[in-house]
Write the structure tokens for this entry.
Amino acid sequence: MQPAPEQSPHHAYPDHWEADVVLRDGGTARIRPITTDDAERLVSFYEQVSDESKYYRFFAPYPRLSDRDVHRFTHHDYVDRVGLAVTVGGEFIATVRYDRIDERGRPASAPADEAEVAFLVQDAHQGRGVASALLEHIAAVARERGIRRFAAEVLPANNKMIKVFRDAGYTQQRSFEDGSVHLTLDLEPTAESLAVQRGREQRAEARSVQRLLAPGSVAVIGVGRTPGGVGRTVLRNLLGAGFTGRTYAVNRAFGADRATVDGVPAHRSIGEIGEPVDLAVVAVPADRVPEAVADCGEHGVQGLVVLSAGYAEWGAEGRERQRELVRQARSYGMRIIGPNAFGLINNAETVRLNASLAPEPPAPGRIGLFTQSGAIGIALLSGLYRRGAGLSTFISAGNRADISGNDFLQYWYEDPDTDVALLYLESLGNPRKFTRLARRTAAVKPVVVVKGARHSGSTPPGHAVPISRIPDATVSALMRQAGVIRVDTVTEMVDAGLLLADQPLPAGPRVAILGNSESLGLLTYDACLAEGLRPRPPLDLTTAATPQDFRNALAEALADDGCDSVVVTAIPWVGEDGEAEAGDGEVLAAALHTAADAGPAKPVAVVHVEIGGLAEALAAATSTVAQPRPSAQPSSAPAAPPTRTGAANPADPGPAPASPGSAAPLAGDGAPGTRIGRIPAYPAAERAVRALAEAVRYAQWRRQAAVPGKVPEFLDDTIDEPGAAELIDTLLGPDPDPRGRPLAHEEARELLGRYGITVRPTLPAPDPDAAVAAAQSLGYPVALKTTAPHLRHRADLGGVRLDLANETALRRAYGELTDLLGKPAELQPVVQAMAPRGVDTVVRASIDPAAGAVLSFGLAGAPSELLGDTAHRLVPATDRDAAELIRSIRAAPVLFGWRGAAPVDTASLEELLLRVSRLVDDHPEVVSIALEPVVVATQGLTVLGASVRLSPPPARTDLGPRRLPNY
């Protein structure tokens, strides 16, 4: 909403303060600045506030606002006087206001950095978290305007408002003065305030998803008058699943005499139903959707599933139609799945919701599935159905203009009915938030992701999200850092999901292989080696092995302390007449189940070749029964979060106390009989082993995540953060170029030096005499290098001469260099003192607008660059991240004594990585750093080259107040 012309011309309307937020109960509201056009809304709002709330606000009876009050509360300069309103359906439900004051409490302007703040929330909306959300936003506005503290006067009886301030997590002081509580809040974000904010975000977004998945009533808008069509199909699926709530069919074309459709009450509009409707499935043409949304919003519908197409996937016009759809729905407090969605399913026995177009509904189970593609959703549902797998929930979000994978991670994190989360994603609207949520969820249950559109370089049609230019390899590395199991295909996702959902996590990489085929056992053995596992020699039971032999061998392998998991390989038995014996699959499955159920809790997978009925029999144990996981967990496993019925501490950013059935157990100390019973079967050894290897890596990550890394404290003694900040301000200047600026060599050396990073000096050598003078200053031996952009770091092109021990050698090298490559003015030669011999490496850090700061490491040289052998971690990096970073590249053995060479000083290298991480994390103006080469010797290291780029800091949306994205 833009201000009226009489709004103060000195400060433009701050439209970037507008935000959609999710409230505690899962509904949405809009926060925006109050303008002069809001006088009538303000008066109407105030009339609906109780006398008690008015008394708490003004400390006296205040039945109505005077004209002077209305003028004061609607006229702001957006700097010293600011008012924000929360709206639903265009009407105010709450307001907040601050006025800048001086040390005596009188009205003031900058540089005064304190403001008095006051809230007012309609009684009907108290308890929804409105004031908490408003405090986050008004605090962010105040910080932007140079205000550092809020002062508030609250009556002692106003416990709700005191609690809002107390629970915010800001540093605060309280005193009792003149009959009121005087509160002072320091607005600088703290670890506690950020934890509180993220805890509230999680609960609100999870609740908004739960409202969609567990409605008490569903209306399908667009049900055809005759069989067939999208709306009629969804209605049929709702009825077929046995939805436990009320169902309605809606079509404005129904005649007045039409009472039912397929036995369901028929109505021409939501308003005609006369009863509350929680969820509406919209299946009408795109041009009729706004009318349907308005009908839903005006009659209290909580959420929408929009199946209709014709939105962003159709180009610019459709993209604008999609934005308007989201704006319209949120204005009524509703959230949307879609548009162009396939639908959603909740198999909970108390709900039994199938509001989708799925032709083969999945059985109940403990896998949660989210897809951004209807076609992929159909394929995944079909594959899971054929393999007897069950789902807790399924969502196909289509264009995911509102509800996204992030929202479902928030929901699954605390959902006791989901043990594994599977996501097919074609775009990441907020990669920084995704990795944060995925890491928290992965600490208690596996998260498996397939990322589509990896190499197209663009976002799929319909996904109106910011495009991240971060390479796919970097995305994959960051997902691994967050504990996400990243796989390449949907088949691999199903393979991994089946094993993770039904088997305990392995305690290590040791694999026992047994079966009745030596060849299949050897194929499995080779696949294990290729995946980095440690297989034992296959146990060949011979083709004469009976199911009892399989049972005994599996029981023995599971009981062996030297084995962490078992792969069973099986081929059909062949009778004397050359025909495969019928019924063997069921008998073998029963034998394997008996051994597995009686043995310790270790994962078991089966590789079979054309054994009829085996896969089905192995899956039959839990094919349609969603059983909770064993509650016993080793002490090394992260604790599970609370269920939705439990209490949670909003200030605790980590997992809460354990809840039975909410986290995958780690193997190694499980008691016999604690496994779920279903054993996944695979038609190829490579598929089974790849799924097992993902489980091994994930289990290792879980164990490490239980004890998080840290930044060593010794770094603080050698880091001059204030000095670096002052230097950065000086280098950027009072009016910095928004494109940023690269630092000169000496500028970069000075800045890096403030963080204990020493760069070996270089001296220019525009002619041979200057080169000799530089060498005499630095001391022989020296290196002569070109610094021209096309030759920089390209020793293979002859632009570097090393170990020049005297003037004669230096002059000769200078002549050779200029004769071979060009004139000195083109080559820009420099002289540098020689560094101790070692391994040449590269350390980089850069800022991606979507993903955040990324720290990278690799070996220097063309081979590593050509093969993309670079590792990445998100900043800030911990000591564990730094150690993993240098060990995760393929060429890492070179650092640890490959082929008899002496190991280099990796401890110094880890310290350098941590210093670079701290520099970038402390100073967002540092948008890129490249240290190349960094020569790591057996003792110490030398940074020979450095480039740094500064820029005005990009916006950090992840640190601001909660808000829904607007694409």
Observations:
- The chain has a mean pLDDT of 87.
